[in-house]
Design brief:
Length: 475
């Protein structure tokens, strides 16, 4: 994504429009990206009928959420494994979750927990690459992909689709919004399959979506819907009066339409939602990202990734024994004190999204996935915290077992797929890999994962080298 230190102006020139369309594409304008897409000329197989325009929301929890505190508690395990939290019952008989997820307990009939996914990459970089690409990464560390992220593959397959909004959007904190921060890179598929990046905290007063060219004059306050709408209308009117527009080729015209389309303007305008719903999601970066994800898929975006990493923002005070992401090593944080701060926000945002998808009739068209790159060590360790200087409990990286939440996509819900052994160490029943999840996603999107793309050396690379849809949820 391109950044600029220039002050925004009230009237945008044609050049400024194209610059505003960089959209996190490594410096490419949107017109350039569309040209590259057209040159690639890759088709897609898209579902039609009652479930046309399927979409996916990925809530990404970088660092590795602790399965033993959230979705796979082991109350009968030794104390050094089970930790401090107790399981609580849900509205589905036999399904229990961690006690700090009380709102999850009310909606268990609307989601499925998968407890038996595992892989072999324990480094954050290797774990991100392994999970997000569906491939064994060439190196076990580092975040730069040597194979394209699944989201970029989806963007490639659906590049011919034009709904007046971007096909692929991500949201993350400023400074953490680069393509290679979370292994969202496209490798040999090219920059044209990078996402439209929404950077920053959308709950902040004065939040601006700079990628859309929303200047400070257009939206000095995101709560001021009228000003936002008038700013877009004025930009569109000024641009239409610019004689240079007549010289635009079809690719730049498409970029122009995307920047000024009512669908784009409305999709990102959270002030169109009633205050009661925004409060349900939570006036917080995570809550507003979840709400934005729902608005985007409803508007026609196919793949949305929203990062929920740092809970200590949007007015939530940083605690000395807390940590930025879900990486709950004892040296980083006090596992339970940190979870006591982050899980209530997480609980509210995720369940609001689940509830909203169902209430708006999106539960068949939209598949929701909530996961990180791996789980945490089943056995708790104690170390002196870097920030606190005292011994505190934590869990380390553990790709041998992890839990995730899925819902929507017309799948069967109110169930648990797979299990781990009595200490949460490894899959016991129905062992799965990230590829089985992605095969399920590709089938939902109508994409044949046996098809191939050519890599930089001209070798055919299958979309997914192995994996099968999870039949328990997708039939």
């Amino acid at each position: 994504m391109s950044n600029t230190s220039q002050k925004p102006s009230a009237t945008l020139s044609r050049r400024q429009v194209l610059q505003a369309g960089a959209l996190g594409l490594g410096g490419l304008s949107m017109g350039d990206a569309f040209r590259l897409q057209a040159q690639a000329n890759t088709g897609s197989t898209v579902r039609t009928g009652a479930e046309a325009d399927p979409a996916v929301i990925l809530i990404w929890l970088p660092g590795g959420p602790p399965h033993m505190e959230m979705y796979d508690l082991k109350p009968e395990a030794p104390s050094e494994y089970r930790g401090l939290l107790n399981p609580i019952s849900t509205n589905v008989s036999g399904i229990e979750i961690g006690e700090w997820l009380p709102m999850h307990a009310k909606y268990a009939d609307r989601y499925t927990l998968i407890r038996s996914v595992a892989h072999k990459f324990a480094d954050h970089g290797g774990g991100h690459k392994r999970f997000l690409t569906g491939r064994q990464p060439a190196t076990p560390v580092g975040f730069v992909n040597d194979a394209p992220a699944v989201s970029s593959i989806v963007a490639k397959k659906l590049e011919g689709r034009d709904r007046g909004v971007p096909n692929y959007v991500t949201g993350a904190n400023r400074g953490r919004d680069g393509i290679d921060v979370y292994s969202f890179g496209s490798a040999y598929l090219g920059h044209e399959t990078h996402p439209f990046v929404v950077s920053g905290d959308p709950s902040e007063e004065g939040f601006q979506i700079k990628n859309l060219g929303i200047t400070s004059e257009m939206s000095s306050r995101i709560q001021d819907r009228l000003s936002l709408m008038q700013g877009f209308d004025r930009m569109k009117r000024d641009l239409e009066e610019d004689r240079q527009l007549g010289a635009m080729d079809k690719f730049h015209e498409r970029a122009f339409r995307l920047l000024t389309s009512p669908q784009t303007r409305e999709a990102f305008d959270l002030t169109r939602e009633p205050e009661s719903l925004r409060e349900r999601y939570g006036h917080h970066a995570w809550g507003y990202r979840a709400l934005m994800a729902r608005r985007l898929v409803e508007a026609g975006v196919t793949f949305v990734t929203m990062v929920m990493e740092n809970p200590y923002q949007s007015g939530v005070d940083w605690i000395k024994n807390g940590t930025y992401n879900w990486d709950s090593h004892a040296v980083n944080c006090h596992l339970f004190d940190d979870l006591k701060a982050r899980l209530p926000i997480y609980d509210q945002a995720v369940t609001a999204l689940i509830e909203d998808l169902y209430q708006r009739g999106l539960d068949r068209r939209v598949m929701l996935i909530v996961t990180g790159e791996f789980g945490r060590t089943p056995k708790i360790n104690h170390q002196v915290g870097t920030q606190t200087g005292v011994s505190q409990p934590g869990r380390d990286h553990w790709p041998q077992a992890m839990s995730m939440l899925v819902c929507g996509g017309g799948m069967r819900t109110g169930q648990v797929v797979g299990s781990t052994n009595s200490r949460g160490e490894h899959p016991q029943e129905r062992p799965l890999t990230p590829n089985d999840l992605w095969a399920t996603v590709y089938r939902h999107l109508g994409i044949d994962w046996n098809e191939s793309f050519l890599d930089h050396a001209g070798r055919p690379m299958p979309i997914l080298p192995f994996g099968e849809p999870i039949t328990e949820i997708s039939g």
